[in-house]
Design a protein that fits this description.
alpha+beta, 270 residues
Length: 270
C-alpha cells in the first residue's frame, strides 16, 4: 500500500478528477465544482479536495466516503510533494528526448504518452515550463503508474530552474527584487511560529476560494501578507513559493505572480 511507504494516495474518478475525502463533501455537497481539481471552497477543518485530499492517514483511507471511492476509482493518484519528490511530467516523445539530453538520469515511470521522471526533493509545481513538460510536486497530484525503474536522483538545480521565468517589465515598479523577498532584519512581532503559519494558510485559502477578479485577489492577498510579515526575517522564500503556487493553481502565470509581488513590495516601501 502506498501510504505505508509514506506516499499519500488519492482515488480518481474518470477524467483524472479526485474524490473528496470527507462525508460533508460527498457529491460536492459543500458547493465544490463537480470537476474540481483545486482545493476548496469547503469549510472543513482539513482541506479535503484535489491534491489536498491525498493522505497517509489509515482512518481516512478506510472510512466513508473513501472506502466506497476506492471501489469506484478509475485510477489512483498521489501527492508528490507530500511524498518528498518532484515529478517531471514529459507528455510526448519530443519532451522525453529533451529530458534525456538535458536532465540528470533518475527513476523513470512510463506513461500513456511519455514518461514521469522522479527526483528526490520537493518544489513548487508549475505547468508548461516548456513544450510538453509539467512539474508536479507541492500542491499538485500525479497518477500512480507504478514504482518505475532506476535510482531516484536528488532534485537538481536544472529542474528547479525550469520553474523560474523571466519577469515581465510591463507595469512593473522600477525597483524589482531578484528574489521574492528576504527578511529585512526588523524586530519580529510574531509571538509564535503558529502566527505566521496561520497567516500564510489563510492567504492560500483566500486565493484558492476566489471565484472572480483573480488578479486583484492575488495582489490584495500579497499586499496583506507583506504588510503584516514583510518587515522582519520570518517570511522566507518557502512561504512566498506557497503563495505563488496557490495563485498559479487559480490560473495565474509565474510572471503575473512576480508582477503582483513586486508591486505590493513597492506599495509598502519594501
Amino acid at each position: 500500500m502506498l501510504a505505508a511507504h509514506g506516499i499519500p494516495p488519492l482515488p480518481l474518478r474518470a477524467g483524472k478528477v479526485p474524490f473528496g475525502n470527507c462525508l460533508d463533501c460527498t457529491g460536492n455537497a459543500c458547493g465544490g465544482r463537480p470537476n474540481m481539481k483545486a482545493p476548496g471552497p469547503c469549510q472543513c477543518p482539513g482541506v479535503c479536495h484535489a491534491w489536498a485530499a491525498a493522505t497517509t492517514d489509515p482512518q481516512i483511507l478506510t472510512s466513508p466516503p473513501w472506502a466506497t471511492a476506492w471501489r469506484r476509482a478509475a485510477a489512483v493518484a498521489y501527492h508528490p510533494g507530500g511524498a518528498g519528490v518532484t515529478v517531471v511530467d514529459l507528455d510526448d516523445p519530443a519532451a522525453v528526448q529533451w529530458a534525456r539530453a538535458t536532465l540528470p538520469a533518475t527513476r523513470t515511470v512510463t506513461t500513456t504518452r511519455g514518461e514521469h521522471w522522479i527526483y528526490q526533493g520537493a518544489m513548487r509545481s508549475v505547468n508548461k515550463v516548456r513544450p510538453g513538460v509539467d512539474i508536479k510536486s507541492l500542491m499538485a497530484y500525479a497518477r500512480w503508474l507504478g514504482p518505475g525503474a532506476g535510482a531516484t536522483a536528488p532534485l537538481p538545480d536544472s529542474v528547479r530552474a525550469l520553474a523560474v521565468k523571466d519577469p515581465s517589465t510591463a507595469h512593473r515598479a522600477p525597483q524589482s527584487p531578484t528574489v521574492p523577498l528576504r527578511g529585512h532584519g526588523g524586530e519580529c512581532r510574531h509571538r509564535t511560529p503558529a502566527y505566521l503559519e496561520r497567516g500564510i494558510a489563510m492567504a492560500e485559502q483566500r486565493i484558492s476560494e476566489a471565484r472572480s477578479a483573480i488578479h486583484a485577489t492575488v495582489y490584495r492577498t500579497f499586499l496583506a501578507v507583506l504588510s503584516t510579515h514583510g518587515r522582519c526575517g520570518c517570511l522566507t522564500d518557502t512561504h512566498v513559493n506557497r503563495l505563488f503556487t496557490a495563485a498559479q493553481a487559480k490560473g495565474e502565470s509565474p510572471r503575473h505572480c512576480t508582477d503582483a509581488w513586486t508591486n505590493a513590495l513597492t506599495t509598502l516601501g519594501l
